[in-house]
């Protein structure tokens, strides 16, 4: 992916996999989307998204010469110890893995990691359980 290449809708520039958000597909197309007809979401006010996409014309924060910065540090360190926000604490690891594997391979891995082994739907973050069947995987992944 080039520096200014567009991200898939299911990916955020900070390294969050939007496809596991409970709002994804329910009016929200994800942080990579430019569809302004979707429901109001916090992504339009996200300072990281604005900095990366609009101000610097980058696809991922890790492509920036200022990375890591105060914006990504703030997100990474938010809600320490709160399991509900574990996905935020994984952004640096996610960005390193994207650099190592490439975005397409990483996204396939995230889709598989988040797939419910019982019904095949997506296990969402915040709750870390499948909204369709209620399955809760172990807390390691």
Number of helices: 5
**What is the ordering of alpha helices and beta strands?**
HHHHH
Largest sheet: none
Structural class: mainly alpha
For the residues shown, what is the average pLDDT? Answer: 87
End-to-end gap: 27 Å
Radius of gyration using CA atoms only? 15 Å
The fraction of residues assigned to DSSP E strands is under 5%
Poorly predicted parts: none
Which range best describes the helical content: under 10%, 10-25%, 25-40%, 40-55%, 55-70% or over 70%? 25-40%
The number of E-state strands comes to 0
Query: What spatial form do the alpha-carbon principal axes imply?
Result: globular
Can you lay out the helices and strands and say which pair or pack?
Blueprint: H1 47-55, H2 70-77, H3 86-89, H4 91-101, H5 103-113
Helix pairs in contact: 4-5
Q: What does this molecule look like?
A:
This protein is an all-alpha fold. Helices cover 30% and strands 0% of the residues. It contains five helices and no strands. It is globular. The mean pLDDT is 87.
Summarize the structure.
The chain has 141 residues and is an all-alpha fold.
Short key terms for the protein model shown above:
141 residues; mainly alpha; 30% helix; 0% strand
């Amino acid at each position: 992916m080039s520096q200014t290449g567009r991200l898939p809708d299911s990916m955020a520039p900070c390294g969050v996999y939007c496809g596991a958000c409970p709002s994804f597909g329910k009016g929200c197309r994800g942080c990579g989307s430019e569809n302004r007809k979707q429901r109001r979401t916090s992504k339009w006010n996200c300072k990281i998204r604005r900095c990366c996409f609009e101000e610097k014309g980058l696809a991922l924060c890790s492509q920036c010469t200022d990375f890591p910065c105060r914006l990504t540090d703030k997100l990474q360190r938010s809600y320490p110890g709160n399991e509900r926000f574990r996905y935020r604490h994984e952004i640096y690891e996610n960005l390193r893995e994207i650099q190592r594997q490439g975005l397409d391979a990483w996204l396939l891995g995230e889709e598989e990691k988040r797939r419910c082994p019982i019904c095949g739907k997506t296990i969402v973050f915040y709750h870390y359980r499948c909204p369709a069947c209620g399955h809760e995987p172990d807390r390691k992944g």
